[in-house]
Specification:
- The structure holds two protein chains of two kinds.
- Chain A is α/β, with parallel strands linked by helices.
- Chain A has two domains: 3-131, Beta-Lactamase (2-Layer Sandwich); 141-307, P-loop containing nucleotide triphosphate hydrolases (Rossmann fold, 3-Layer(aba) Sandwich), CATH 3.40.50.300.
- Chain A has helices spanning 3-10, 14-20, 71-81, 90-94, 141-147, 163-176, 214-224, 240-248, 262-267, 269-276, 300-307; strands spanning 29-33, 39-42, 45-50, 53-56, 97-100, 104-115, 118-131, 153-157, 182-186, 207-210, 229-232, 252-258, 282-286, 294-299.
- In chain A, the strands form two sheets. In chain A, strands 4-3-2-1-7-6-5 form a seven-stranded antiparallel β-sheet. A seven-stranded mixed β-sheet of chain A has the order 10-9-11-12-8-13-14, with helices on both faces.
- In chain A, strand 5 and strand 6 form a beta hairpin.
- The radius of gyration of chain A is 20 Å and the shape is globular.
- The model of chain A has no long low-confidence stretch (mean pLDDT 87).
- By secondary structure, chain B is mainly alpha-helical.
- Chain B has one domain (29-148).
- Chain B has six helices and no strands.
- The model of chain B has no long low-confidence stretch (mean pLDDT 88).
- The chains are: A alpha/beta, B mainly alpha.
- Chain A binds chain B through residues 76, 79-80, 82-88, 90, 120-121, 196, and chain B through 48, 52-58, 78, 83-84, 116-124.
Chain lengths: 308, 169
């Protein structure tokens, strides 16, 4: 397993570390819940963790073999994962996650702490979901061949289908092999995983805006970096304005969005509005069971005929 | 024999006088140290506000300007995998430079640096501002103490030296 993942697991005690250190490098998620068994996901199948390694998850845990993590350990581990610098991660914590070294995103569940209607922090953390980020060089080659680089590409899929991995690879491909100017808007630090202690993932010759809000980064990129493409992860309805901005300046966009099928996508108002901006020539749907597999590629013209 | 007595007397007076000088120097060292700690906290507040570095980087960068032995000890503990609380406590205990501080002053430093790591950016400013106010108060007390007692130690030690010599003679 990757060293950055092992250093995350080490924060949760030597028992869990010893159980997982020799596990194969195909784990996609590790879910840690207060006083409950640690559950690991491989290809969307859950496994419990015992001292001997992974085993099929049974809800009753009759033999008491499964490794559990106490509330105190979760609290200590969380402080350690934040490098004892919670202020640095405050915005991300308020959005329900932190991104740690290696680009791995850790989702947080706990008790909301607010003041005058504004969220201040999260306390009494009860669940953490460690989503393991990976780099698969070449995984977007087929997508790049099908979609081309004449227009924008919108990658759609449910969570954990490899959208971010695809974006990472296509950024690298376009900036190196096709020698295009690519600006990457890495709002959550997952695409590049850049930190002052490591260079993170290989995005080729991209210009990376790390931690910037999308709108700000898009404006800065368009005005100063003269990009051919802007790459963004997880567009929502709030990003319509940013997308329109790029269209107005003639910059193409490659982005991802949560959507399970074209049929449901067309019922989604936000996605509908995104498609209408004209920023995307191709819409790609990823397979929900096989990570990274392309299910379908649609031309925007065909989709427009459908919703008309 | 008389020469030996004279040498002995001079040594006694010198030792006593040097002890007095050291004690009065400790008073000014305490004051200087508290001022440097205040500067360290101001620098920490500024860096967190504008750069949001990790605690490790913060201590390492601030340490090049202020209280290097203390920040080095803390940095080494943090890098070695100790928690922030453990790192601060061990740094305070293991830095000889800080022995001139009073217990309440050491406790203030420990409390501030331990709680910074768990605070959001607004609380960081509140914590450091409040600690700086408290340090100002301690600096005032240290200055007063130095002004009052520095000369006293200096003079008293000389008298004690002479008194010891006279008693011996």
């Amino acid at each position: 397993m990757d060293r950055s993942v092992l250093s995350i697991i080490k924060c949760f005690g030597t028992e869990l570390y010893n159980a997982l250190k020799d596990a194969q490098d195909d784990i996609s998620e590790i879910r840690i819940r207060k006083e409950k068994s640690v559950v690991v996901y491989k290809q969307n199948i859950p496994y419990a963790v015992t001292k001997q390694g992974l085993t099929a998850l049974e809800l009753d845990n009759a033999k008491n073999e499964y490794i559990t993590v106490s509330e105190a350990l979760i609290k200590d581990a969380f402080a350690q994962l934040c490098s004892y610098s919670v202020y640095r991660f405050q915005n991300d914590i308020n959005n329900g996650f932190i991104t740690v070294n290696g680009g791995h995103r850790i989702g947080i569940c706990g008790t909301y702490v607010g003041e005058n209607g504004i969220m201040r922090s999260v306390r009494d953390i009860t669940s953490l979901n460690i989503r393991i980020a990976r780099e698969y060089k070449g995984c977007s080659r087929k997508l790049a061949d099908i979609a081309g680089c004449e227009g924008g590409i919108l990658i759609c899929g449910v969570p954990s289908t490899g959208k971010t991995t695809m974006l990472r690879d296509i950024s690298r491909l376009f900036s190196t092999e096709k020698m295009l100017k690519v600006s990457v808007v890495d709002e959550r630090g997952e695409l590049s995983a850049y930190s002052h202690t490591s260079n993170g993932f290989d995005l080729g010759l991209c210009d990376i805006y790390c931690g910037y809000p999308k709108q700000k980064a898009v404006i800065c990129a368009v005005r100063t970096m003269s990009p051919d493409f802007i790459v963004c992860d997880e567009l929502t309805g709030e990003d319509i304005e940013s997308v329109c901005f790029t269209v107005n300046y003639g910059v193409k966009m490659i982005a991802s969005v949560h959507c399970d099928s074209l049929e449901n996508g067309l019922k989604n108002v936000s996605l509908f509005r995104l498609l209408k901006t004209g920023a995307f020539n191709k819409v790609v749907f990823l397979n929900r069971s096989i990570i990274g597999k392309i299910d379908a590629v649609y031309n925007i013209g065909d989709i427009q005929k459908l919703y008309e | 024999m008389n020469n030996m007595k004279i040498i002995g007397a001079v040594l006694i007076i010198l030792t006593s006088w040097l002890t007095g000088i050291m004690l009065s120097k400790r008073l000014s060292q305490r004051e200087e140290l508290l001022i440097e700690l205040k500067q360290l906290l101001s620098e920490i507040k500024r860096r967190i506000t504008y750069e949001m570095p990790t605690m490790c980087d913060l201590i390492s960068n601030c340490g090049t300007q202020y209280l290097k032995p203390f920040t080095d000890n803390m940095y080494n503990s943090l890098s070695g995998g100790y928690t922030i609380n453990e790192s601060v406590i061990s740094a305070v205990a293991d830095t000889p430079l800080l022995c001139v501080l009073q217990d309440c002053e050491k406790q203030l430093i420990t409390d501030v640096l331990s709680s910074l790591g768990a605070a959001d950016s607004t609380s960081v400013r509140e914590i450091t501002d409040s600690a700086i106010i408290q340090l100002d108060h301690y600096i005032g007390l240290a200055q007063e103490n130095r002004q009052k007692n520095s000369k006293v130690y200096f003079v008293t030690s000389l008298y004690i030296g002479f008194a010891a010599v006279i008693l011996m003679i």
